[in-house]
Amino acid sequence: MKKFWVLFSLFILPLVFYLFLSKGIYRYANLPILAEEVIAPDNNPALFKGHFTVVCFPGDEVSKAKASLFNLNQTIYKRYYQKPLFQMVAILPEDSEAAYTPVIEELAAFTDTKAWTFLYKKRETIEAMFHDLKTPFSLQESLFSENAYIVDRELRLRGRKDDEDSTDGKLYGYDTRSVSVLKHKMKDDLDIIYYQLKKSEEKKKRRQRKI
What we know:
By secondary structure, the protein is α/β, with parallel strands linked by helices.
């Protein structure tokens, strides 16, 4: 028995640790691209290009959307709004501006909203922008989507291909009604994006030093 534990600690434990570490490095170094060119030329590409954007569609039922907006604000926005290139964009129906004004003021009362953008658009434009994301989902009649979406600097939709809670493993969007999903999935995935950015800039600096 003593010999077994010696062999276990010498050979098996290091192997298990290596496999765990390798899996962790792979997971942390890659966040899959689920769709490319997700913002059409006529739908504000300049607003999204060069940013890491969390996009949401609150719709025109303010009472339904408010909880989702506050979940996003508390769990995601407050963690990332000071990070480079980050922004959060809410696509709202143009006739809902008056209804959303008090909600936005409430957010601004305890949050620096400099990285929040509220876009008011016609119904057909909102539907087109949502369609551009190339997800299997549909907007509700109120133009509400329960999910928020990550769009990277190259206008690509980022998400997961190995999500344990999705039927085909693909996670296109993050349920804004669930603090747990935002905290344990979206936050982790944004951390991966910023890890990739950091590594990319380190490589760039090393190349510049060699020149």
